């Protein structure tokens, strides 16, 4: 494989220098398309908390669209609980860490050897507070985690050699609006959300997980549920401005957490906002696709009131699916396609590596390839 001075296969420079404290070196393996981390810390498990951007099958089959056709048509070829046509952020991050995508909490009793990869507690539709779904919010997800620790399902060593992924895609804000929340009260509510999120991050760390990554809020104004008003031609600037406040508060909260953490611990933000924007604006990314109509979803209801995966009372499909999901960034009105997540995956590492190599004057050299 071609080798370059920049780390161009989502080898997450931010993990190597900010998250993986004590890092000593990196080796790229062209055979396995993964990156092995040597030094004082090498992740062996991934624990996941959050919502549909990370959920790989925790939602109830009778309630979630993610278990309905055509979800999962790209991977694994049938609905499997992911809110996409294929892989999601969890799958890409797990591959980077060097483990298989961790078993979902739903299937914990049948995890067997897969428990060695960690566990996914994320439930689609949830937030830090109760939202519009009945599934467990993030506090309850962490309760599940703590219960397993107390039952010795995961040991102290398991936790010390692990990474946590925490996602927050905006369900708290959707619930706030649905319950009659006003624009005037939104900044105060955002403070509550971020403060609770920070408490959750601190709690996960306190349970023994040394490295915790949390997602910045994506540009909500660019989701198809918002861009439909402009026939999928432009983002809603007002919504994105509000998102910027959330992300600023998150930056401040994470900085405070890091200032109080031990030197071998780290909290870090995965900047989904900048990564989404970079891809949606069709900026060149190494190995990525250009999406012709990036704001238009691949799968959508045929009229108002219908959604991807919906059927009428006779079982007739009330949605359409694009011919090639790989040509679309968004799968439905909220979630990226597998190709979309891969593009975000690449954009994350490019942005971070450029910043870090410029700041630290480092020259990195690893294999280039698709890690999934």
From TrEMBL:
Transmembrane segments: none
Gene3D superfamilies: SGNH hydrolase
UniProt cross-references to Pfam families, sorted A to Z: Lipase_GDSL
An MF annotation (GO) of this entry: hydrolase activity, acting on ester bonds
Signal peptide: 1-28
GO annotation, biological process: lipid catabolic process
Domain of life: Eukaryota
Tagged with keyword Lipid metabolism: yes
Keywords in alphabetical order: Hydrolase, Lipid degradation, Lipid metabolism, Signal
Classification via PANTHER family: GDSL ESTERASE_LIPASE, OSJNBB0059K02.9 PROTEIN
Family named by the database record: Belongs to the 'GDSL' lipolytic enzyme family.
Name of the protein in question: SGNH hydrolase-type esterase domain-containing protein
Species name: Nyssa sinensis
């Amino acid at each position: 494989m071609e080798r370059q001075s920049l780390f161009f296969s989502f080898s997450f420079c931010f993990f190597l220098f900010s998250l993986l404290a004590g890092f000593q070196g990196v080796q790229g393996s062209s055979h396995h398309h993964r990156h092995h981390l040597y030094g004082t810390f090498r992740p062996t498990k991934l624990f996941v908390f959050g919502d549909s951007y990370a959920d790989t099958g925790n939602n109830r089959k009778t309630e979630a669209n993610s278990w309905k056709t055509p979800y999962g048509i790209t991977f694994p070829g049938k609905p499997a609980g992911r809110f996409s046509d294929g892989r999601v952020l969890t799958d890409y991050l797990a591959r980077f860490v060097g483990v298989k995508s961790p078993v979902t909490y739903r299937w914990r009793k049948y995890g067997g050897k897969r428990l060695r990869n960690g566990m996914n507690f994320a439930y689609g539709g949830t937030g830090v507070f109760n939202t519009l779904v009945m599934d467990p919010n993030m506090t309850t997800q962490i309760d599940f985690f703590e219960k397993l620790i107390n039952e010795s399902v995961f040991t102290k060593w398991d936790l010390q050699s692990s990474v946590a992924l925490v996602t927050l895609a905006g369900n708290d804000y959707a619930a706030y609006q649905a319950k009659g929340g006003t624009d005037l009260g939104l900044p105060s509510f955002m403070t509550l959300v971020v403060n609770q999120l920070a408490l959750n991050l601190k709690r996960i760390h306190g349970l023994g997980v040394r490295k915790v990554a949390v997602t910045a809020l994506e540009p909500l104004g660019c989701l198809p549920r918002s861009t439909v008003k402009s026939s999928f031609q432009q983002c809603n600037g007002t919504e994105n401005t509000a998102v910027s406040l959330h992300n600023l508060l998150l930056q401040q909260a994470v900085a405070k957490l890091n200032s109080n953490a031990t030197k071998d611990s780290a909290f870090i933000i995965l900047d989904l906002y900048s990564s989404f924007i970079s891809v949606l604006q069709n900026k060149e990314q190494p190995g990525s696709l250009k999406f012709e109509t990036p704001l238009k979803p691949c799968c959508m209801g045929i009229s108002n009131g219908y959604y991807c995966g919906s059927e009428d009372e006779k079982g007739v499909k009330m949605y359409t699916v694009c011919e090639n999901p790989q040509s679309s960034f968004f799968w439905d009105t909220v979630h990226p396609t597998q190709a979309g997540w891969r593009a975000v995956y690449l954009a994350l590492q490019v942005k971070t590596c450029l910043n870090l190599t410029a700041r630290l004057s480092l020259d990195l050299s690893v294999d280039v390839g698709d890690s999934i």
